[in-house]
Amino acid sequence: xxxxxxxxxxxxxxxxxxxxxxxxxxxxxxxxxxxxxxxxxxxxxxxxxxxxxxxxxxxxxxxxxxxxxxxxxxxxxxxxxxxxxxxxxxxxxxxxxxxxxxxxxxxxxxxxxxxxxxxxxxxxxxxxxxxxxxxxxxxxxxxxxxxxxxxxxxxxxxxxxxxxxxxxxxxxxxxxxxxxxxxxxxxxxxxxxxxxxxxxxxxxxxxxxxxxxxxxxxxxxxxxxxxxxxxxxxxxxxxxxxxxxxxxxxxxxxxxxxxxxxxxxxxxxxxxxxxxxxxxxxxxxxxxxxxxxxxxxxxxxxxxxxxxxxxxxxxxxxxxxxxxxxxxxxxxxxxxxxxxxxxxxxxxxxxxxxxxxxxxxxxxxxxxxxxxxxxxxxxxxxxxxxxxxxxxxxxxxxxxxxxxxxxx
Length: 408
Fold this sequence. Notes:
This protein is α/β, with parallel strands linked by helices.
């Protein structure tokens, strides 16, 4: 009789080892226990285009007024990307600032996530463009599509990967060029959106804190409430889709409003309870900046006073996935966040998606290290040289090793 492989009839010793591994704590580490790690936010940065578009200027494009827009949304102005700017270029600027505050070099990154609903291309991923220009040679990179909730989704994924030891440093960016996604003849949507980018760097620590909990949710049955109908595989571009403005944002404002006011409160409470806290422990709520009435409704539901809610909607409008990281950066700049404070970030968006995260802020203001900043500037310049050399080599390689011509 032939010998039976161990995989089919394992030996008693092998079976014992398997049982022991199943009982040992571990997260994808072969059953071996792993020391507890926490994912802390150690760097942050933002970018906003210089061009400001006021309500009065929009009123010259479409039938509306400053009073009408402010009363219904709370927005007074928004930023619009210049012709030479894109989601990738704005994400890159925010990323460099985040690396600066983290005092981290691009090669130290293990992962780059760009949350966006307005990527430079369907593919390649905008994150890959950022990875190349940064010179983050050791990082994986991908785009995350969860609309306005995308940054919270990315934060949750990166924090869990760091906590389990899968990686050490992650760059999570929210970046949008929404001004190129709106129909400037539709006053229901063109008044809402603006452009910008915000980024954070996450790193590991044995010290408790950082991302304490996160909650993610989705309900695809409401996908038609907020969408860009054309441009994908279901409805590819055609003269009809272009003439009917099907490549721009379509929104049922009333349904989105009712959905948002409900899920913001629910998600925030669930995330806080998951962290073992109460709303009394929360120093600041940083919501997705979509509409002032939605934020006010959430504040009432959570019984939070205005001074414990951060709002910059009036100056930037809805920057989709970029809105929460931009607001976080501004809250830090204004001294609204101190080490030891617990924050709640919460958002909602197309999909439908929603999410919330509780963060215990432990980072301190970065020390100025001019020589380190100069070194990073050199590394960014070298990244451009490296990218050009790699493209040149691919062309040479294709020429040198091209397959022989087929015989007639």
